[in-house]
Amino acid sequence: MTQTITGLYDSYDAASAAVTDLEAAGIPAANISLIANDLDRRPGNDGESAALEDAGKGVSIGAVVGGAGGLLAGLGVLIVPGIGPVMAAGWLATTVIGAIGGAVVGGAAGGLVGALTHAGFSEEHANVYAEGVRRGGALVTARIDDSHVAAAQKILAAHHPIDPESRGAAWRAAGWRGFDPAAPAYTADEVAGERRTFAEDRFRGDTMTGEDTTMTEEERLRSLTHRQAPPA
């Protein structure tokens, strides 16, 4: 039996470090996925990149499944409705491609939301994760055998993922109603502002800063696991 564990991070650096540590712990690259909205590393940020131009036409699945050098070596670029260009690799990225093309149930929901719900995530979590990527974040998902779940949870938690419950609540308090695939992509200034606003809203030490300071370590780790037995 496998479980899917997920970490949403405010930066590509934190997410890529989590991916590297998962691979070092023996999790196959084929079982891991990364989708990151990182403006600083985005190909074509100068408007001249052929990679970004190609991304607007769609990216082949082979470009984002990961290479011999690990998942990060296989990063490709694709355009996601409501988010814009993202760096992506792994099984969830291939599902996003199918969702954008309408090949999976929920594709009309905006690519990433459709891919997440197709993979078994709740609508609520799918919307928070997609919005997090839209606002400059990076999403790591991994399919983990039951015997390795505890170790993988600790790896994700060590890199300070966003708590989706408190982050979603903060967005809703500010008027957010859910991920909108028709919304404009965030600019670099907007992403920087978002990161400043929530600089302390992440898992740290023995407790989680933000609204809920009573979360135990066990609850923290369990919050990273959302689904058992994902579809092939």
Question: Could you characterize the architecture of this molecule?
Answer:
By secondary structure, this protein is an alpha+beta fold. The protein has one domain (2-228). The protein is built from nine helices and eight strands. It has helices at 12-24, 50-55, 91-100, 112-118, 123-134, 149-158, 164-173, 188-197, 217-222; strands spanning 2-9, 32-36, 76-80, 84-90, 138-145, 203-204, 207-208, 225-228. The strands form two sheets. Strands 3-4-2-5-1-8 form a six-stranded antiparallel sheet, with helices on both faces. The protein has a two-stranded antiparallel sheet with strand order 6-7. A hairpin with a 2-residue loop joins strand 6 and strand 7 (207-208). The longest helix has 13 residues, at 12-24. It is globular, with a radius of gyration of 16 Å. The chain starts with a strand and ends with a strand.
Outline:
With 232 residues, the chain is of the alpha+beta class. Helices cover 36% and strands 18% of the residues.
Key terms for this structure?
232 residues, alpha+beta, 6-stranded antiparallel beta sheet, two-stranded antiparallel ribbon, 36% helix, 18% strand, globular, disordered C terminus
